[in-house]
Amino acid sequence: MIRLSLIGNDYHYELENIIRLFYPAQKVSADSGDFMQITAQVEQTQLAVCVIYGAQTAQREIRRQDPAQDEILLCKLLFEILSDYTGLRPGWGLQTGVRPVKLLRSLEQQYGEQQAKDRFENRLLVSAEKYALAKRVARLENEMLCKLYSNGFSLYVSIPFCKSRCSYCSFVSHDISKSRKLIPDYVTLLCREIALTGEIVRKLGLRLQTVYFGGGTPTAIDDGMLLEITEAIRRSFDCSGLQEFTIEAGRPDTITMEKLQEIRACGAQRISINPQTLNDTVLRNIRRSHTAQQFYQAYDLAVQCGFTNINTDLIAGLDGDTPASFAQTMEEILRLAPACVTVHTLSVKRSSTMVYRGVQRYDAGGDAVSQMLAGAYPALTDAGYRPYYMYRQSRMAGNHENTGWAKPGFESLYNMLIMEEVQTVLAVGAGASTKLVSGNQIQRIFNYKYPYEYIRGFDEMCRRKQQICEFYKKTAE
Predict the structure, then answer these.
(1) What is the pLDDT along the chain (477 residues), one digit of tens a residue?
(2) Is residue 153 within 8 Å of 424, Cβ to Cβ?
(3) If we measure between CA atoms, which residue out of 32, 40, 35 comes closest to residue 16?
């Protein structure tokens, strides 16, 4: 436990995020701490941070000039002390937010490219390497932003059921063997929510641009249900301007030729088939109920079925994986030459079974993961892929990032816009979160989290949907 004491300020959240960069497995409390004591103080003329660890004490001060800078300067003082003490220098520096590329684009619009770079590297202490990656993504995103409709929106459809739960997973997903009886009612109500959302869209004059089926694993539900949901979408929305339709096939052990043909009948052009790793030992470690061979078979079926826009997800830092075996996985994936490859860094959430089992994969140094990414990014670049979207999460091994890579022309518009918050996303289903966007104004509307809550509270949830009209009315005034 780390005790964080604040004097003359209330920056607990911001300072705790800095602490997590170096000690991600430690809890932070304002009341007690037997591991480390940290005090952050704001006085009239000075800012100071003191860190006590056992018999060692480190303190740094800086002259206070502008109160508006207190927060970032306290974070900087703490970062420098902990960096000196641990010998670690997290590449993203003080940038602990989810959307570093959105921040970079905003700084460029406000200050210009050179000053934005200076703020990233000198003010936020972002490494030159991480800045360069963010800049590559921002450059490609600027090209993609030109494709957005002025009155456009995207539709997210949540299918929160999986064949089994992976050890690292913290998503709202249910083991289908235990929740199968909920699925028929869930799909019926999901179609009703889609119809209601369609009525709102027609009233507001919005134009559907992308559709994304996520989960869970959408292909885990019974044959015919994906088509039933898609038909509800086509009845409820004008799909004449639909530019992208993605269905996460996800788990290779849920993919059959019949399921792929159903996806084609739905009209989806883009699918994800996600091995996470092609090391069978690692797959068993993470409780993934398929083998590498099953992934190859599923991928081959998708190619036979005519899919040319296939994404594959990989995770760096899984239990039992090594830089060598991760490099082998990457080599095999590049041999298949999918349209997109998304490289995630392991982020262990408290609600994952990995934590329940006592397996701690929090790694502030992240040496192994850093080696994995150091090999993967150049390999992807050499193979003709470009990084087109990126986001970060808390408790990521080595404080790295998740990055989507695509061959030119195959970038997912939905993935980019959901991360950069540049278009409204209307979300349906359990655990789904609608995000309303108008200029710089953003509002979220949350559906009930679990399928049984969704079914039980459906009428109340539908009433919440009226907030969509209220938001657009308010922002138009």
Answers:
(1) 999 999 999 999 999 999 989 988 788 999 888 899 999 999 999 999 999 998 899 999 999 989 999 999 999 999 999 999 999 999 999 999 999 999 999 999 999 999 999 999 999 999 999 999 999 999 999 999 999 999 999 999 999 988 765 555 555 555 565 678 899 999 999 999 999 999 999 999 999 999 999 988 899 899 999 999 999 999 999 999 999 999 998 889 999 999 999 999 999 999 999 999 999 999 998 888 789 999 999 999 999 999 999 999 999 999 899 999 999 999 999 999 999 999 999 987 554 444 434 444 445 657 899 999 999 999 999 999 999 999 998 878 888 999 999 999 999 999 999 999 999 999 999 999 999 999 889 999 999 999 999 999 999 999 999 999 999 999 987
(2) yes
(3) 40
Cis, bond preceding 224 (omega within 30 deg of 0): no
Q: Hey, which residues does 442 pair with through a beta bridge?
A: 437
Residue type, 338: P
Cβ of 244: how many Cβ atoms within 10 Å? 19
175 and 232 in contact (C-beta within 8 Å)? no
Contacts of 477 (CB under 8 A, 6+ apart): none
The C-alpha angle 216, 222, 226, rounded to 5 degrees, equals 70
Strands 402-406 and 340-345, by their bridges, are antiparallel
* Alpha helix segments (H runs only) across 4-69: 12-22
One-letter amino acid identity for 98?
A: V
Q: Which helix (H) or strand (E) element contains residue 37?
A: strand 36-42
Whole-Å CA distances, 444 to 22, 427, 437:
31, 10, 9
* Residues 305 and 380 both lie in one domain: yes
Q: Are strands 36-42 and 2-7 parallel, antiparallel or unpaired?
A: parallel
Q: Return the structure tokens found at 314.
A: 């990989």
d(CA 472, CA 461): 19
What is the distance between the alpha carbons of residues 314 and 214, in angstroms, rounded to a whole number? 17
- Domain holding 124, by residue range, is 100-137
- Residue 472 makes CB contacts below 8 A (sequence gap 6+) with 204, 436, 438
Alpha helix stretches (DSSP H) within 317-386: 323-336, 353-356, 367-382
Domain count of the fold of the chain: 3
Contact (CB, 8 A) for 207 and 149? yes
Question: Would you say residue 142 lies in a domain?
Answer: no
State the first-to-last Cα distance of the chain, in angstroms, to the nearest integer.
Answer: 49
Tokens of 85: 């003490």
Q: Which helix (H) or strand (E) holds 441?
A: strand 441-446
Whether residue 188 is contained in a domain is answered as yes
Same domain, 169 and 195: yes
Same domain, 203 and 303: yes
